[in-house]
Amino acid sequence: MYNFNETEMKNFADDIKAKAILEMETKQVPIITGGGLAVEKADKNTKFKTWLRAKYDGDLMVVKAITGTAGTTLPIDFASEMWNLINDYSLSKYCTNYKASSLQLQVQTLSTKPVVSVVGQGAEVLNGNTAVNVNKQITIDKYSGYQMFSKEMLDDNNYDLYGHLVKTFAEAVAKKMDAAIIATLDTDATVVNVGEVAADITLANVLSGYTGVQGGATKNAIWALHRTTYAKILALITAGTGVFTNANSLANPTLLGYPVILSEEVATYANANGSRWGYFGDFANVGFASRQEMEVELIKEGTLGLTSLANTRQVALVVDARFGAKVIDGNGVVKLTA
């Protein structure tokens, strides 16, 4: 067995150190030095990866510096950007939004509409209605998601981990939000049976949805459809129906002049027969409640799904969100069924 002398050991250690420094310089490892002002000036990806690495290494001083003392709250910034992106992906953007501070939210509404009558000067109003307050309860459920990735990603600033995770988490959470909204629509929205759609969708099917909503609810109405159903409706253009105002702009589709919002949570065209194939109306008649504070945490131990983080040498970012939805006025939104 060969025994290294002191000089050889020092040279070996220096060589390892030099390679490590070269690797760090090549990957541009995000390291923030210089105190609070440096933290403030650093870009989001650098702050995010420095925060993740500090969480991984258990460096509580760095974690504290990035999450509060230096005037920045990175996990909150991460959640805020997610909420902003969610508005681009989710139907919740069109609902009446409430902030919830508990697991349930009581929303009051009126079960009647105003009645206006012509009367003589000074005469008594003969026609009126009884205003009945109705409580709608929105249940706030907790949703948790995670994304695993290798520790090497924390050491490579060439990859925008922050931007990628904000976008992909926003997409995933928005999908669950749509599922909650669709679930309450299926239960409480007015049902309009438009006939068979599996063979083909006709203009009569579309018009049935439009006429099924009470007049006032059409002013700010939208269509919520699956992309496969929307593609079938596009075929109506070739029949000369003229139901589209911007048939050549798939980026901003409309139907009968109303915006079309595509959601993966609406039934696909293949599954539409015997089920709901779309929704139409003013989604402000749907209450959407959320607790804005999302919990963002890094974990490095345990098993997620069937994957062991230790065995696969991975870490995971976990995001917890709380939200719920409830139809407030079922006459304002219709569920189109076949």
Explain what the structure shows.
The chain is an alpha+beta fold and 338 residues long. The protein has a domain at 188-286 and 332-337. It is 35% helix and 25% strand. The chain contains 9 helices and 14 strands. The protein has helices at residues 6-27, 36-41, 44-57, 60-69, 74-89, 161-188, 203-211, 227-234, 309-312, and strands spanning 96-99, 104-110, 133-139, 141-150, 190-193, 222-225, 254-255, 258-262, 276-281, 286-299, 303-304, 307-308, 314-327, 333-337. Helix 3 packs antiparallel against helix 4 (60-69) and helix 5 (74-89) crosses helix 6. The longest helix is centred in the middle third of the chain and has 28 residues, at 161-188. The chain starts with 5 loop residues before the first helix and ends with a strand. Residues 20-30 and 32-37 have low confidence and may be disordered.
Features:
four-stranded mixed β-sheet, 338 residues, six-stranded mixed β-sheet, 35% helix, 9 helices, alpha+beta
